[in-house]
Each structure stands twice: as C-alpha cells, then as structure tokens.
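Notebook, p. 212. Picked up where the previous page left off. The plan for this session was modest: take the two constructs that came back from the sequencing core last week, fold each one, and keep the raw output in the notebook itself so nobody has to go hunting through shared drives later. Recording the first one now, exactly as returned: residue sequence, then the structure token string.
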Amino acid sequence: MSEKKDPDLIYNGNPVAPEDTKQIQEKISITPRTAPQPILNCKLKDLSEVDLEIVADNQSTQLWNEYVERYHYLGYQKPLGRSIRYFIQSEQNILGCILISGAAHSMAARDSWIGWTPGQSLKNMAWVVNNSRFLIFPWVEVRYLASHVLGKITRNVGHNWKTRWGYTPALIEAFVDPVLYEGICYQASNWECLGMTTDKGLAGISKTDRTTPKKIYVKPLTKNFRAILCTDHLDADPMDTESIDMKRS
C-alpha cells in the first residue's frame, strides 16, 4: 500500500486527521426528510432488486448521517480513518444504511482465531474491516432482507474498498449486542461467532474507553485470509497472492 502516513495519526491501521482524534460528535439535525414511512411488509422476492448504493456526495452523506442518528440504537458517530457508507436501496425506497470502517484495534478472541502475532496485528489491521453500522429501517418488515444484504456486502465490499482505498481487505467483522439482538441474520449468512468482547475490547483511541460485551462475528473475504493477515511485510494489495508468497519465502 503506497501511501504516506504520519505514525502519530494512525487508528486501527487507518490514517486519521488530527481533528478526528478527539472523536468529536457532529450535531445532527433531524428533519422531515427522514420521517417514518408506511410499513413495508412483503416477501423478499416481491421487492425489486436490492442494491447497495455507495454514498458519495455531501448531500447523500448528510442524509445517511441523519437516518443513522435517528434510527440506529447507537446513533451516528463520525467514523475515524477509512470508511464506506452504503444505502440499502430497492427500486422504490431506501431500506436502510450500512457503514464499513476500520476494525477494532485489539480483541483476544479474534486475534487468537486469526493466529497473527502482535506485530502482524499492528501492521496488518487495515486489512480487516468492520460492519460498524447495520440498519434496516423500523418500518421495513421484509423477512430474510438482513441476511440477503449481508451476503451482498461480503461479496461487494472487497471490490468497493479497493476502488475507494486502493487495496482489498481480507476479513470483515461485526459486533452484536446480545441484550438487544441475537445475531440471527449473521448466522444465516454463514458468519462465524468467535465469542464475546471484553468491556474494553472495542475501546477507541482513549485508553479509558469502556463498552459492554458484544458477540464477535467474522466472515473471511478470501480463502487465504490467514496467509494475508499473518504476513510480516504486507505492503501490496493482499489479493496479489504471488507478491505475498514471495515475501513469505
């Protein structure tokens, strides 16, 4: 990955602007444009094609932020480092929102499962991405939609991330609050549950951050994800397996 980085401004393997390191919460105004809509209750097959639309312009970004602030139980928080926002879109309606961003910096269950060393984890964390916001609007009652969308995101995010950021991630992770959700849609999409985070497993830049334990779900984005993530000198597109093999030999 050929990109100049200030080592003092790296979070989860991602470059972070100085003003972002304080993780200042943007004030989101709630407007009528995100008002609840009539209940949409139908079968998945009755919807037109469901697409993941990348949020690219400022107006769409503001709309996405407002939807997430209004309807996601965690609200909106400005993502640090690299990220991609998506609208879940049918032909007629926006059905929800997704945010893919940098991975959590340290989790014993995940790191043990990957098998990488602390040094490899530090260097290669950028090749793990996190499904940090996943929202189906509360008026959308379409069975199997969530698992259908998760399938699409795992198939598309590698290409989308490479187009946006210049390299292809090897693994995607997500966290589910078991007090609120069971994670059935992740299970139905063949994500693997690795256990639970600790109360500090999702801490951000501040060492004093604490969170409640969450279920850890992961999904490889390539068959050789462990070889990629456990490479000592990963500085090329990790999908370039010839380059990786040369560095490991």
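Okay, moving on. Second construct, recorded in the same format:
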Amino acid sequence: NDVANEMIENSSANILNMGFMNHSHTNFYYPFGGSDSVRSVGESWKVKFDEVSSGGDVPGMEDFVGSSTIEHNYTLKKIKEKKGDLIAYVDQETIITMSGITFDWESETEVLFSGKMDGKARFNLTKGYLVRDKISFYLKGSGRDLKTDETFSVIINSEISIKNKYKKK
C-alpha cells in the first residue's frame, strides 16, 4: 500500500527526532533533561513530555491531531577524564506512544504508534557537546483509513550511531 510505504519512509527518516534529540524538546546545552543541575554517578532521572497536537506536523505525518508521550530515562554510569576533558557516560531508555488522526495523502487515517529506544551516550562536560550516541530502537504502529476502513501496520527496528568531533577555532 502506497500510503503505508510513504509513512514508513517518512517515519524512519525522522525517528531519531522522537528519541534522544526529539523534535520539539531539543536542548543542545543540557540534552539529558534540560537542566544544568549536578548529577552523581549512579543517579537516574526521568524527563517526560506529554503533548497534544491540533493540526501541526509530526515527523512522517502532516496535519496530525492527537497526543504523544515521550519519556526519557537516564542513568549517569561514570565520568572519565580523556585528553584533559571530563566525559560523562549516560545510559538512556526512551518510551514513545502516539495516537491520533492524520489528514494527509488525501485521506483521514487513525494512527497508533508505540516504541522503545535504548542507548548509550557520551557527553563532553568540559566543552559541552555530545561526543557519541548509540541507539537501538523498536517502533510498532498501526493505522486505519477512516473512509475505506483499510488497515496497515508498520514495524521499524533499527540502530543508529552518531559521533561528533569538536574543533577549536
């Protein structure tokens, strides 16, 4: 089905935005919870976003009306000194749920997505940038065309690895 294939392509192209650096909550200075508060090794914390969308664009879907919950769980595993910089090693787990109706591709489609991401990140505390992030994720979704009652399902299982280099100018 062309609608399902287009949704799969758009969703997988934008899935990273819904996880570690999700589309509407990106904080490049404090990516692990939006705060500069001091964390202790072994400490865990949670950051949760509940959103209601009324006609905005969501990755892979235009004119989405519905709700989503993105819950990030972080654990500071260790802090290590490398080449004079302090590097924080952080484990992360993200749980995503989204449900609503999308009005695109000349149809009205009821959609439901849920998924989980697991990752390990390294953050340079000295210079304030993400050094590395490895994420594996599983996303399952279903949809139903409200005009034809046709249904489809989507499963995305993938891994992403990001590595950044800092150059002082």
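Notes on construct two before I forget. Confidence is low (pLDDT under 50) at residues 3-26.
Flagging for discussion at group meeting.
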